[in-house]
Amino acid sequence: MTGWARIRRTLPHLSPFLLGLLIAYAFVFLMLYHMEPQPIVLRVGLFAGSNWGVPEGNSYAVIDQVIARFEAEHPNVKVVYQSGIRRDDYSEWLAGRELAGEMPDVFLIPQDDFDLYADRKALAPLDDLARRDTAFSLDDFYPAPLAFARSMSSGTLYALPVECVPRLMFVNRTLIDREGIALPTDDWTWDDFLAICQKITRDTDGDGRLDQFGVYGYTWQDAVVTSGAKLFRDDGRASCFADSRIEGAIRFTIALHQTQNGQVVTERDFDLGHVAFRPFNFAVYHTYQPYPWRIKKSMDLEWDCIRLPRGPHGENISPVQTLLMGMNAKTRQRQLAWEFLKAVCYDRDNQEQLLQNSAALPVRRGIIEDASTDELFGSTGKQRDSRSPLAVSQVIEEGSVPYRFPGYQAAMMLADRKIQELIDSNALESNTMNRLQKEVNALLLK
Residue 385 carries which DSSP code? Predict the structure, then answer.
């Protein structure tokens, strides 16, 4: 006889009172079961590893701390994410989730993917949420990272910045000290830069070949950023390569190139301490203190970072790259997703964790200025940082926003190939930049 049959056979023998009591208990149990709140699941899209091409010991350290605090403040919420997605695979993974209709409620957005999701209306607009939230202010973000979170076409805020890195000039202090050269000040110019490179670049062992160099990795684009000119119109429909300031930036880059007498400077030259300057993003500088990590035990070098030099009509500014986080336009947890966005991007305590657990920098004003030099630059080792936290904050405050519009990558590939040929051959003529501008414009209008 089955258990259920035995129960049915037993029930008639119960008194009406006991039977009623049993039914009442069962009813109350069922009511309590269905009344118990089920946890709300908030799905987050993340990738493993650094966004900036540097090693990162525990890429989930910051987000795990954010989640722990968020869940403690929201007891009925469970924040989940899929671990192990590599940075190089993340864009494809996220696109797959969109096609399958399984986009996370909140997700990281590499800057090259932002316009794709904004234009496809896959991101929820955030302006109204930001405006209504009295505990939140967009003015607390640095301008450049925040600007990257807005659509270029509509100006709509579709994301919040998570972290950022400015591009700075890395300096071999040991080499320039040996040559009797003072570390340049924040307002140094192209002329200062060229004069130092000309003095440093020479044959030190008398074998007829240069073995000490001024710079490695400085590009014509670095010069344009500090020239005071814009490469493209804001709408991306035309270029400005014929601007005399851009031509001046190309001529300056050619002059730097000529100091090398046709020799190719390599990364190994820099690693061995034979080069004075190299531009890097801040994450690389922070990670490889003292640089380079693979030879630091055998080298006795001191390093520093300074601003990029400026042209006659420009400023000592740096491009600032930004990692963003946005909200799924179809999320059913809109307010909760907004609260989590704020926790990652705006909460001061969580943003401060970037200084301990990331090579990137906070996007909220006030945190960098309040940090110690060791917190900002990492272990001191053999570097001799002259930059104060306030100086680094000012670099981000004044930073420029990288271009992004349809056709930008193709236009820059064409321009870079043509300009690199000019630099290598020193063939910049009076009408060269006009011809380049016409070629780029024709590509942009296709």
Answer: -
Q: Other C-beta atoms within 10 Å of 83: how many? A: 11
Find the Cα–Cα–Cα–Cα dihedral 266, 271, 273, 277, rounded to 10°: 60
Q: Over the stretch 306-333, which tens digit does the pLDDT of each residue have?
A: 999 999 999 999 999 999 999 999 999 9
The DSSP output letter for 314 is: -
325 touches 107 (CB < 8 A)? yes
| Measured distance CA(291)–CA(379) in Å, rounded | 12
Burial of 61 (0-12, 13-18, 19+ CB in 10 A): middle
> Which residue from 215, 164, 207 is spatially nearest to 354, judged by alpha carbons?
164
Q: How far is CA 352 from CA 47, 94, 347, 376, in A?
A: 20, 28, 9, 10
Token pair of 168, please? 């700075």
Alpha-carbon distance 198 to 213, whole Å?
8
The identity of residue 48, as a single letter, is A
How crowded is residue 139: how many other Cβ atoms within 10 Å of its Cβ?
A: 7
- Judged by DSSP in three states, 205 sits in coil
Alpha carbon distance 229, 234 (integer Å):
12
Q: Are 244 and 165 in contact (CB under 8 A)?
A: no
Residue found by looking up tokens 């070949």 in the block: 209
In tens, the pLDDT along 186-240 reads 899 999 999 999 999 999 999 999 999 999 999 999 999 999 999 999 889 999 9
Residue 121's region, left for phi above 0, alpha for psi from -120 to 50, else beta, is left
- Backbone φ and ψ for 57, nearest 5 degrees, come out as -60, -55
Within 13 A of 330's CA, how many CA atoms are on the CB side? 10
Q: Does residue 106 sit in helix, strand or coil?
A: strand
* Residue from 90, 175, 5, 107 nearest 326 by CA: 107
Place of tokens 């271009």: 403
Map residue 123 onto helix, strand or coil.
strand
3-state secondary structure of 364: strand
Record the tokens describing residue 340, joined without a space: 């989590």
Token pair in block for residue 163: 């972290």
Cα(289)–Cα(238) distance, integer angstroms: 41
pTM: 0.86
Radius of gyration of the chain (CA): 29
Residue 195 CA to residue 193 CA, distance in Å, equals 6
